[in-house]
Design goal:
By secondary structure, this protein is α+β, with helices and mostly antiparallel strands. It is built from two helices and four strands, in the order ββαββα.
Length: about 80
Amino acid sequence: MSQDCALKLSGVSKRYEHFALQSIDLTVEPGTVMGFIGPNGAGKTTSLRIALGLIKPDSGQVEVYGKAIPEEQVEAKWQ
């Protein structure tokens, strides 16, 4: 993963009983303004909660400014 990305999700998956977020890849460069749109149940909130370290993905990697989430989320949030 690259430290020059503000946010990077690589192969992120999360499964619940009635929902599965499967193999999400997303890269957001610093200074980028982005909209996150989709129908209800598409996984928008789950993806953002994973990126914020509020829930742990079942698989894949998440980095915020080169820091692994959730392991280094405190350091990432100080960036």
